[in-house]
Amino acid sequence: MNSRRDYRGNRIALFDGIEEGGIRASSSYSSHEIDEHDNERAVDGLQDRVNLLKRLTGDIHEEVESHNRMLDRVGNDMDASRGILSGTMDRFKMVFETRSSRRMFTLVASFVVIFLIIYYLTR
């Protein structure tokens, strides 16, 4: 805490000598002390940027994890759908393998087509 007060006091003293057209060098501070203050300010600025980047990368990591979980769920749902569709196709194959089932399908399909033709002609 004491170093903060010293820093603020030194900063006030550092910028106290600013005049129009340039900086008037203060007799109580050497060039080395002024460079130290500039370095401290630069380090503070860099530390703020590092903290910002750290938070940003943490947010990106959370977002990536969220998307990975969502993609896993979608993949699992697609696998389940593929299994259901496969079972349905197997049942269709069994229906079409017997000759009487093919005739029944042809009869039903022709009735549907005739119904659709009549419906569109009467509209």
TrEMBL record:
It comes from the Eukaryota. The keyword GTP-binding does not apply. The keyword Protein transport applies. Residues 33-95 form the T-SNARE coiled-coil homology domain. InterPro entries: BET1_SNARE, T_SNARE_dom. The chain crosses the membrane at residues 104-122. PROSITE patterns: T_SNARE (PS50192). Keywords: Coiled coil, Endoplasmic reticulum, Golgi apparatus, Membrane, Protein transport, Transmembrane, Transmembrane helix, Transport. It is a single-pass type IV membrane protein. Required for vesicular transport from the ER to the Golgi complex. Functions as a SNARE associated with ER-derived vesicles. Belongs to the BET1 family. This is t-SNARE coiled-coil homology domain-containing protein. It comes from Vitis vinifera (Grape).
